[in-house]
Amino acid sequence: MHPDVKEILFDEDQIAARVAELGRQISEDYAGQEVLVVCVLNGAMPFTADLLRKLDGQVCLDTIAASSYGSGTISSGTVKITKELKTDIVGRNVLLVDDVFDTGLTMSLLVQTLQARGAKSVKSCVFLDKTARHSVAYRPDYVGYEIPDAFVIGYGLDYNEQYRQLPYVGIIKPEAVR
Ligand code: IMP
Ligand code: MG
After folding, report:
1. Which ligand is nearest to the Cα of residue 41, counting in written order?
2. What's the CA-to-centroid distance between 67 and ligand 2, angstroms?
3. Are 85 and 62 in contact (CB under 8 A)?
4. Which residue's CA lies nearest to atom 17 of ligand 1?
5. Which ligand does the CA of 152 lie closest to?
6. How much is the pLDDT for 126?
7. Cα–Cα distance between 140 and 108 in angstroms, integer?
């Protein structure tokens, strides 16, 4: 275990099993329909790569990056897209994939933005959901695990751009947070 990790929440085997379940569920829900998987960079890279390989049917892949600015507790704000899609999403089924749904601001604004561009459908899949931290009414369509309000790292999740490479999800030690 990495010395900056206090506790492992989900190990590699648990993650693989849950991702396979999500893949089965998503494949069933989109049966007979094409889906454009959109990985929200950088945090969702490992999750998207694993999930993608558990999807059946006609699947395309694109990436987007965003940073959200809101006023904390107020459920409004704007999302700045810092890396655009390459795909024209008009008439497409879009599945946004992110690492964690925290306040929910980033995901809810991305969903609204892509819906406004004329997608046929826009759904979301997040690996982790911090239910106690939600500040928007929007809820993700697919959730890997609900977690308590703690700062987690690994499996794509970072603290100061570090720890994304850890194969498990863990809670960071307070002394590692500066
Ligand atoms: P939201 O807009 O508040 O839902 O923020 C979501 C983004 O905040 C995620 O995509 C992460 O980049 C970041 N984030 C929130 N909680 C954590 C955490 O516990 N560890 C690492 N990143 C986090
Ligand atoms: Mg992120």
Report:
1. 2
2. 8
3. yes
4. 151
5. 1
6. 98
7. 8
Q: Is the pLDDT of residue 48 over 70?
A: yes
| Catalytic residue flag (residue 99) | no
- The pick from 102, 105, 162, 173 for probing ligand 1's pocket by mutation, whose C-beta has the most ligand atoms within 8 angstroms, reads 102
Question: Is the pLDDT score of 74 beyond 80?
Answer: no
Atom of ligand 1 nearest to the CA of 103: 3
Percent of the chain with pLDDT over 70: 94
Under 8 Å between Cβ of 151 and 130:
no
Mean pLDDT across the chain: 94
First CA to last CA distance, the chain: 20
Distance CA 77, CA 159 (A): 23
**CA nearest neighbour of 124 among 38, 27, 53:** 38
Q: Is the pLDDT of residue 73 over 50?
A: no
Per DSSP, 82 falls in state: E
pLDDT of residue 117: 96
Q: What is the pLDDT of residue 3?
A: 97
